[in-house]
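Can't paste images in this forum, so I'm doing it all in text. The chain is below; anyone willing to post the predicted structure tokens underneath?
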Amino acid sequence: MKQIYFTAGPAELYHTVTQHLQTAMNEQIGSISHRSQKFRDIYRFTVEQLRELMAIPETHGIFFTGSASEIWERLALNCVEHESFHLVNGSFSKKCYDYALALGKFAHKQEKPLGEGFDYSEVEVPEYAELVALTHNETSAGVQLRTVDIHKLKRSYSKKLFAVDMVSSAPYPDLDYSLIDSAYFSVQKAFGLPAGLGVWIASEKLLERAEQLKKADQNIGAHHDLPTLWKFYQTYETPATPNVLFIYLLGKVAEDLNRIGIDNVRRDTEEKAKMIYKFIESHSAYEPFVKEDRHRSRTVVVANTIQSSANVIAEVKKAGMVIGSGYGKFKDSQIRIANFPATSAEQVQQLLDVLQKIG
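Text version of the structure:
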């Protein structure tokens, strides 16, 4: 039986991926050189589609990595001489902080328990922090940091570099890139592609910082440092052989989303999220893990379960759908439901009907 994946990544493939993959095979995209004009055209096309979809200005370069996790290391090496600051309220925001520590940086953190979010008014950035690392959507806990709060923080600490993890929410968040210095995501979540490609958006200001550190003989990394990525980006090339096939597929899916329109994508995401939260709030067998609505993720919904989550997941699978378990210590007591563009409102309703019967 073919399954519908409501998992937080890898997730359900976007419905056009099969068609685009067949076209790529017909055109032998997997075999072309990354120094060819054909690849340069693919890179340029993907960048153009992402700029349109996410309103990314020309002041920001768009680069490709092996994963979003790799970008945690790139940020710490290329942007931080001594100190960074991290908002931590889940496993992935914590990992970004841990990467900075592992690289010898003096990393500060303001931390909250899983399930709790941050508001602008309670955040205090240390005086000497050079980079502020924020997570728009904490995948492990289903918590979002509102873009209005991200923008307010940047305005209040305008001299500091701001980097936003949007791994499990892009392209949904309406980030103002005239304020944000860097953002990054991976393609196996809301873009509905197989895993294996990270996307790093970085401003000219971020490049200047990396160049300053390099000039001062600081180690900014030997693999894919930002000045090298930017140098090759000028001609739509990459320093090493990238995942050409997935860059092609990303451009095509971004084009498909542009045809729908980002406003419609966001509206659909919000309407489906309302359906899910309304259900888990009203059903006695489930409850929202995140209590405050303003902190609830619109793309990854986390619910506490009365019975073992393994039982719920097993019953859902019998109906041809796959949902995720809770993360870490919540594995047996929570379910996670991804709300990405690849799944329709009708499919969400099918899932809720099954969950209703299980309860």
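The chain has two domains: 4-11+261-358, 17-259. The longest strand covers residues 60-65.
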